[in-house]
Amino acid sequence: MQVAIGLTFPGTLKDEAVICDLCKKFNVNVIIIEASFSNTTGWAILKVEGEEDEVKRSLDFLGTKNIRLQKIETQK
Hints:
Blueprint: E1 2-10, H1 18-25, E2 28-37, E3 41-50, H2 52-64, E4 68-75
Antiparallel strand pairs: 1-3, 1-4, 2-3
């Protein structure tokens, strides 16, 4: 499964390696399409690839970090 997502990060996460954690905690590959970060906010467009359960768990993880998530496209 592959999901393209848009993420908006709160400034409180500026010192956390959220995308790196995503790859370490879940069996997914992440492709960063585009991103921009500052001290107050950040955004990224990613493709997350992996088994359906792992992709869903990884997206749930992002939600627990108060990251706003918008699904752009899903391919099974």
